[in-house]
Amino acid sequence: MPLLQTLLRLPARVLYLALFVTAIGLLGFGLYLQHVKGLEPCPMCIMQRYAFLGVALIALVGGLHGPGQTGSRVYAGLIGLGALTGGSIAARQTWMQLYPPEIPECGPGLEFMLESFPLGEALPMIFRGAGDCAAIDWTFLGLSIANWSLVTFSATVAFALWMLVRREPAR
């Protein structure tokens, strides 16, 4: 119990920097899977990476800033929004993996969609996913990358909610 109490009493700065390191580690692992193991990310995977990057950058700013209680809540709210966005994409991809389309289509890549269509049209196409978004190319402990992404985003939302309601420990 003393270790848990110590962790709960850490300043917001330390907690945000720990989240930054975690998110960057996850992004690095995704790049490892892509460039070393040859797993090409689908458009939904790329959007999840952007969400992880957004969470990481907000956490870095929060860690460097060393905010007080109000600032910590602002950062927590922004991190929560980023994690909810990424989590919704991961949830949609998880759903597609559980119930794959009957006729898998290889839709256009993310770069093509964003260059060829206005953002208002491209985003719904991204969230619908392509046939390759339902593919499960890698698993760990029985969970796909999308499943792990959903777990991680859910944990990040829980972290953000905790940071919103916790009292900043006395320094």
TrEMBL record:
Chain segments annotated as transmembrane: 12-34, 46-67, 74-91, 145-165
Pfam families in the cross-refs: DsbB
Spans within the Cytoplasmic topological domain: 1-15, 68-73, 167-171
Major site of localization recorded for this protein: membrane
One Gene Ontology term of the molecular function aspect: electron transfer activity
Membrane topology, as annotated: Multi-pass membrane protein
Cellular compartments per GO CC: plasma membrane
Cell compartment(s), UniProt: Cell inner membrane; Cell membrane
InterPro entries (alphabetical): DiS_bond_form_DsbB/BdbC, Disulphide_bond_form_DsbB, DsbB, DsbB-like_sf
GO BP terms in the entry: protein folding
Key words, A-Z: Cell inner membrane, Cell membrane, Chaperone, Disulfide bond, Electron transport, Membrane, Oxidoreductase, Redox-active center, Transmembrane, Transmembrane helix, Transport
The keyword Electron transport appears for this protein: yes
Topological domain spans for side Periplasmic: 33-50
Cysteine-cysteine disulfides: C42-C45
The UniProt record lists the keyword Transcription regulation: no
Job of this protein: Required for disulfide bond formation in some periplasmic proteins. Acts by oxidizing the DsbA protein.
PANTHER family in the cross-refs: DISULFIDE BOND FORMATION PROTEIN B
Family in the record: Belongs to the DsbB family.
Name this polypeptide is given: Disulfide bond formation protein B
Species for this entry: Thauera humireducens
Gene behind the chain: dsbB
